[in-house]
Structures are given as C-alpha cells and as structure tokens.
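Entry type: protein chain
Record version: 2
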Amino acid sequence: MPIGHGNGKQSLRSPVGDTQWLGMGHSKVSMVVGIACACSLVYVVSLVLMSVHPACWTNYCLARHCTPHFTTQLFAADLNMTQRPASGAFFEDPTPNCHSVLRLRSGSSIVGPRNADVSRIVFGIAAATDMWWSRKEFLKLWWKPNSKMRGYVFLDKQPLGSYWSPELPPYRISESTAHFKYTYKGGWRSAIRISRIVSEMFRLGLRNVDWFVMGDDDTLFFVDNLVQVLSKYDHTKMFYIGSNSESHLQNILFSYNMAFGGGGFAISYPLARALAKMQDDCLSRYSYLFGSDDRMHACMAELGIPLTKEPGFHQLDVVGDVSGLLAAHPVAPLVSLHHLEVISPIFPNTATKNYTQVRALKHLLKAAEMEAGSIMQQSICYDQRRQWSFSVSWGYVVQVHKGFVTPRELEVPQKTFLSWHRESSKVEFPFNTRDNPGDVCKQPTRFFMDTVDVNPADPSFGGSLVMVGVFVREISEDKQACVDKLQPLSSVQRIRVRRKKQTDESWYQMPRRSCCRIMKWKNENIDIRVHECEEGESLVRSF
C-alpha cells in the first residue's frame, strides 16, 4: 500500500518505485538528511559572507587572485614604445584592474558603477612634432604634473633634442600606418595615425583604467568638470561621449552622429577593448575619409555604438570674437575648448593687461581652479527701478542691457563670431543665435573678470565659503558716444559678484540655472549676489 493511502494525502512515489525507497535502512536515511543539513548550512554561510563582502563574489574579485595583470605580449608592446622614463611614472590605484584578462558575457560588469576618478582616466593627446613647440603651451595650462593624471602625447616622429619638460605628459611615437591607404585628395595621412591612438593606448595594458579621453594639442580640458560628466555614465558599458561642431556645414560634411575630435571625446574601457580588436580592419574600408574623428565615427558605426552628446565639449568651429557664444554657455559643465589659436583672445586688452590667447585662458582658469562647475554658468537678474537686465557668466563676463530683455532671449548666444566658413547667417549654426546690434549703443555693456578670490564663511550664504569676482568695464571708444543714453550705467566701472561654491553634485545630474539679485548700486559700483533659486523663485522675480 502506498504511503498515505486512505488518509487524504497524495501518494508519494520514487521514480524507480516504492520498493527502493522503502528498502533504505535507517542509517542511509540519516546520511541523506545529514548531507542536506550540511548543504543548507553552507548556503546560509555564503549568504552572510556575500552581504559583508559583496565584491568578493564577482568576476572582478576572483580574477584578482587568479589572473596576472599583464601578459607577456602586452609587456613587450610597452617596451617597444618610446616614452619619457621614470619621471613619467603613473600614480597607481590600489584597486587592481582585470579588464585586459577577463572574458565577460555581454551585459556583465567588471566592477560596479562608481563615480569617475581622474586617476582612472587616460588622456591621449594628438600632436605633430613640427607644430609641438608652439602648441605645448596650451597643454601646460591644464595638465597637472606630479598628480593622479595619466596620459601620453602621441607624436609622429622623435622630437628635437633630448629634453622633455616634466610639466608635460610623457610622449610616445605612434605606430607606423604606412600599410593603410589614404585617398582623400588634399588631406593629411596623419588622420589615420591619430584615429588609432585609443587602440594604441589600450594595447599598453595599463592598469586601473575606466576611460580613454582623446584631445588635440590645442584642446583645453576642464578636468574637474570632465570627471563629473563621466561620473554620470557606467564605465563598464560601451560609451562614446562627445559633441558636434558649432558649424552646421561642418556637421553636414562630416556627421551629426560624430564626436568632433578637437573638442575631445571619451571612450569607455569596454568600448576601447572592442575597438582595438577590429579597428585596423575597419580603417581599411575608409581610405576616402578626410580626418581622424570621422574614421573613429565609422568604426563606432560598425560596432553599433551611437554618440552620447554632452554639450560641454566644444570643438569651437567658429572664428573671431567668441564671447557671445561663451557668455551664453548651456546649463551644463564646461568640459573643453578647442581651436584656441584660431579664435581671438577671450579677454580683451585693458589699460594694464595685454592678453594673448594663452594669457587669456590662464586668466579664465583662475576662476575654474577655484571651482570648476560654475565656470561660464550664466545667471540672469534685473534692476526693476532703473530698468536694466543683467547676464552674469561666472568667471568670464557680466553683460548689462538697457530695458527688460527676457531670459528666453538672453540665454541665446549673440553673434559676435562667424562660422568656420566665415559666414554670419543664422542658418550657419546648429543652435539658435541672435544678432549683435549694429548700433553700438544697443549692444550690451560688458564687464570682464579682473580678479577672483574666496572669502571666509559668509552668514548670508549659510556659512559657506563664498567666491568673489570683480568685473571691470571693457574699454570701448565706440561707446563714448553712448554715455548720455546709457546713464546711470555709464558711471559704473566695476561689478562685484558673490556666489557660493558649487558643492551639490546633483547639479551635474539635474542642472538648473542659478538666480541672482542686484544687492547694491552706488556710483561706480554694483554688487550682485548669485545663489541657488529658492522655492517659488524665478529669474524675473526681481523685475
């Protein structure tokens, strides 16, 4: 009779029959029960350990103990490259990196997402030896030697002399590309060499890398902002991050889906790994393309990776005075500026200062080094009694317009510049623009940053450290004819702006334009306070 028969329970049968189960002795049953209990105990202990040290149950931690960091081939490849010795040694993150040896399934992660760190970014700077000695001054502006920053300058041939400044990243001589065809008439073969820099950096087998960032020797990076922007993205997934040109025609000729290389772009480690495997084969199909960045884009297209656009990367395909563009920077961190030899110095000369391109950028960096997130961020406020509109671009310029000009209009760049093809029509640009009035008296009166400093904790800012910038009137002989029309502003010589340091990292995720208030207007001086907009506050509340 089966067990349970006649008592309302379902019959329990072994797959091989009741007789085998019933024939088991007491000792065997005890043994089975004991094994089951032991397995349960192991499972419970495993759960406890995983809750205490979750990382040690991932592929990352397992590889840490059973896989070497470098293969013989990678080490040999590193020895074959020219670089500055000892002084170019990189800071090593204590957390090992197993990227180059793991074989992960699609969608799996080497390490969990975390905030980006500058020590886990490797910069590749595209340069040419013949132009290097004039361009290197731009790199010195943002590169911090003896810090956690890592990167290489990639040259086409050995630099002259044996001295290499310790203020610069170490250099490498790019691999030969003689076996690749280049058929673009009037172009430069160096495009092939530059397009392979990310793959060459990957093959060095560097440890502790999350991102490879490309730029030119005349690209200025705001590194703190770059780190914050990359922190928005999961470095264990494939990302291609950058931005387009400021010239509509350039985007048409190349692609709106391409990151323009001079403005810089970031490639996540997994994408660099995939690129290194296929790039040479990919490049063989695109001999007819012009530049390095469109070759990179072609390979991204073959990998199926779209461009993730970040508006803080700036190719600056414009010429002339870019102040109208920079003063209306998007509500996003400023990451890079390019074509620094083509544009006019971003600060005008004063009675005491004669600005070259490099000196002007160094002046801008005084504010950026104090706090990078706020640099170029535009705030808008009004003086209701006197009927004036103020546009404050922190660290750069305060522009004052007569009458009421709406925020919708002030946030649009004013065309002080021309397109890359030296045209001024609004259809030349892939963003909205507004005309710069021909009547000089209707143009904004500009006050450019002169000094910037940090004041001790200020009770009016909740006890936080406060940045104080002094902006002085631009010297303009043309404006002399407008003195009477622009009173009482004609008497103002300087504007002092106070703002709290940007300490809330959520701003990088969900940015909002700051509010500002005219605190004092007396004779030659105006005081402005910039602050986070309060509950129920709008930019026009003061008008």
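Comment: The CA atoms of residues 3 and 181 lie 82 Å apart.
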